[in-house]
Specification:
By secondary structure, this protein is mainly β. Helix content is 6%, strand content 59%. It is built from 1 helix and 13 strands; from the N terminus they run H-E-E-E-E-E-E-E-E-E-E-E-E-E. The chain has one helix spanning 2-17, and strands spanning 40-52, 57-71, 74-87, 90-95, 99-107, 115-123, 138-148, 153-162, 171-181, 186-196, 203-215, 218-227, 233-246. It has a 12-stranded antiparallel β-barrel with strand order 1-2-3-5-6-7-8-9-10-11-12-13. It is globular. The two termini are 21 Å apart. Residues 1-18 have low confidence and may be disordered.
C-alpha cells in the first residue's frame, strides 16, 4: 500500500511539474492568450478597492476566476464576485451576477507572429443577490494579442466590447500592457486601458504592478492604478493569489 501511494504521489508531482509555469489573467486588465493546460483547474482569487471622485467607494472582497482546460486550445471559465458599493450612506453588498465563458486559441505564437485568442463571457443577470441583479443577461468578448519582444520583454493588448445588462448599448474596451521579467520568478507590468461608450465620457486608466511565482503552479500578485478621466476612479488597489492543480 505504501509503495502504491508513493508511486501515485510521484506520478501526480511529475504531471504538475511537467507543465509550463502558470499564466494568469490577473492582476492587469489585459488577459493573456494562453489557456489552462488540459485537465487542470486554475483558480485566480483576489480583491479590488476603488475610490471614486465623487466620494463613492466600491470593493470586490473576493473575486474568483475559475478556469478548466479541456484541451491545449480551449478552456471553460466562470467568475464569482462578492461586491460592495457605497454612495454616501447607502451601502449595498452582495453576489454580483455569475459569469460563464470560454477562451479559445486562434493563432499560436511563432517567430514574428503574435499569439491570438478569443474570450467570450455571459453574465447571468438573475444569478446574483437581489441588490446586484440586472434586467438582462450581459455578454462580453475580447480578442487577446501577445507579442514577444525578447526573452524578458512582452507586449500585449486586448480589443473588445461588453454590455451592462441594463441598456442595449455596448461599451468598447481597449487595453495595452508591457511586461518585463526581472527574474524567472518576478515580473512587473505597466498598462493603459479604457472604456468607450457613445452616451458617456471616455474612461481611461493606468495601472502597474507585479507578479511573483512561488512555484510552477502558485503565483502572487499586487497592483495599483489611477484614473485619467473625470469619470474614472481616483485610485484603485488590488492583490491576489492564483494556483492550479490537475483533476485527472
Amino acid at each position: 500500500m505504501r509503495k502504491f501511494t508513493l508511486i501515485l504521489l510521484v506520478h501526480l508531482f511529475s504531471s504538475i511539474t511537467a507543465q509550463e509555469t502558470i499564466e494568469t489573467d490577473r492582476p492587469d486588465q489585459t488577459e493573456t492568450p494562453s489557456v489552462t493546460p488540459a485537465g487542470f483547474l486554475q483558480i485566480e482569487t483576489g480583491f479590488l478597492y476603488e475610490k471614486v471622485r465623487d466620494g463613492a467607494k466600491s470593493a470586490s472582497h473576493r473575486t474568483v476566476l475559475w478556469r478548466y482546460g479541456l484541451n491545449d486550445r480551449f478552456e471553460m471559465r466562470m467568475v464569482t464576485e462578492l461586491n460592495s458599493e457605497q454612495f454616501g450612506d447607502d451601502l449595498r453588498t452582495g453576489l454580483a451576477p455569475i459569469v460563464f465563458g470560454f477562451k479559445a486559441k486562434l493563432i499560436q505564437k511563432k517567430e514574428m507572429m503574435p499569439a491570438v485568442s478569443f474570450v467570450g463571457h455571459l453574465a447571468a443577470g438573475n444569478l446574483a443577490s437581489p441588490v446586484m441583479q440586472t434586467v438582462n443577461w450581459a455578454p462580453s468578448f475580447r480578442f487577446l494579442i501577445e507579442h514577444s519582444l525578447g526573452e524578458k520583454l512582452g507586449l500585449s493588448y486586448n480589443l473588445g466590447a461588453e454590455w451592462n445588462g441594463e441598456t442595449p448599448d455596448a461599451t468598447s474596451i481597449y487595453t495595452i500592457a508591457a511586461s518585463y521579467a526581472f527574474t524567472p520568478q518576478l515580473s512587473m507590468f505597466a498598462e493603459f486601458y479604457g472604456f468607450l461608450n457613445k452616451h458617456s465620457t471616455a474612461d481611461h486608466r493606468f495601472d502597474s504592478g507585479f507578479t511573483y511565482l512561488l512555484n510552477n503552479n502558485l503565483m502572487l500578485d499586487a497592483s495599483a492604478g489611477v484614473g485619467l478621466s473625470e469619470v474614472s476612479p481616483n485610485y484603485f488597489l488590488s492583490g491576489g493569489v492564483s494556483y492550479r492543480f490537475p483533476l485527472r
